[in-house]
Design a protein that fits this description.
Family: Belongs to the UDP-glycosyltransferase family.
Protein name: Hydroquinone
Strand order of the largest sheet: 7-6-5-8-9
Helix content: 40-55%
Keywords: Glycosyltransferase, Transferase
GO molecular function: UDP-glycosyltransferase activity
Number of domains: 2
Organism: Musa troglodytarum
Number of helices: 11
Length: 266
């Protein structure tokens, strides 16, 4: 059972292929209809023999505030899917022997259902790394780069992104900046627009990338934060001061600069 989004279905499908094609298992995906589109349906239909899928009916979230953040929406969606997941597992158990129930990181609230029904259950945790930023850091002098990243979900407004860009350019300092699409309504908007059609780089000031080429590197959406903080070229960290980010910076670096950007701009 993947959480909503094509990017979550694919890793689980690759794992399932190993069991289906190499070990003779069958695999059934439980997917959310709220996030079902032509591309997702076409992908699931293209899977080889031995695969099937069940679509959970639409889950109303009308009672949530319009500006509810990603954690609230996703938690509510998964929580409200539990009765449907129970029905699916019971139905499957009547026709086949369930060897395992596998979920991804965001579907943890469904695990008690598997435990209740006596089905072995597992969580698949995946990660990938953008090494481009690390290769660029290898070419920079020790302690010369300001790492700018505001966590995995916090977003700046359009105005704040523009001001951030002008400030970095005017400083003349080397920088590695993780940029996400702006959101003027929700501070955690990046969670909902991570897979959106917009390119975060297009919100930068015109000519910014050309003018800062060589002195700075802009990475869309995500960079391997621990590796960046541990790199010898990193000399400062401009952050939202999330607790995990602070711990990582304390463990992996001796920085002259750690700034909470949201205290400054809010």
């Amino acid at each position: 059972m993947p959480s909503p989004g094509m990017g979550h279905i694919i890793p689980l499908s690759e794992l399932a292929k190993l069991f289906v094609l190499r070990h003779g298992f069958t695999a059934t995906f439980i997917v959310f209809s709220d996030f079902s589109d032509h591309a997702q349906t076409a992908f699931l239909d293209s899977l080889p023999s031995g695969f099937s899928y069940v679509v959970i009916p639409p889950l109303p979230l009308d009672d949530l505030p319009p500006d509810a953040d990603m954690v609230t929406r996703l938690s509510a969606m998964v929580e409200r899917s539990v009765p449907h997941v129970r029905d699916v597992l019971r139905s499957l158990r009547r026709t086949t022997r369930l060897a395992a129930f596998v979920i991804d990181l965001f579907c943890g609230e469904t695990l008690p259902v598997a435990k209740e029904l006596g089905v072995p259950h597992y969580l698949l945790f995946t990660n990938n790394f953008m090494v481009l930023s690390l290769l660029w850091l290898d070419e920079q002098p020790p302690g010369s780069v300001l790492f700018v990243s505001f966590g995995s979900g916090e977003t700046l407004s359009m105005e704040q992104i523009q001001e951030q860009a002008w400030g970095l350019e005017a400083s003349g300092r080397r920088f590695l900046w993780v940029v996400r699409c702006p959101s003027d309504r929700v501070g955690s908007g990046a969670f909902f627009h991570l897979q959106g059609p917009d390119d975060p780089l297009r919100f930068l000031p015109e000519g910014f990338l050309e003018r800062t080429r060589g002195a700075g590197l802009v990475v869309p959406l995500w960079a391997p934060q621990v590796e960046v903080l541990a790199h010898a070229a990193t000399g400062g960290f401009l952050t939202h001061c999330g607790w995990n980010s602070l711990l990582e910076s304390f463990v992996h670096g001796d920085y002259k600069l750690i700034i909470n950007i949201f205290i400054i701009i809010n």
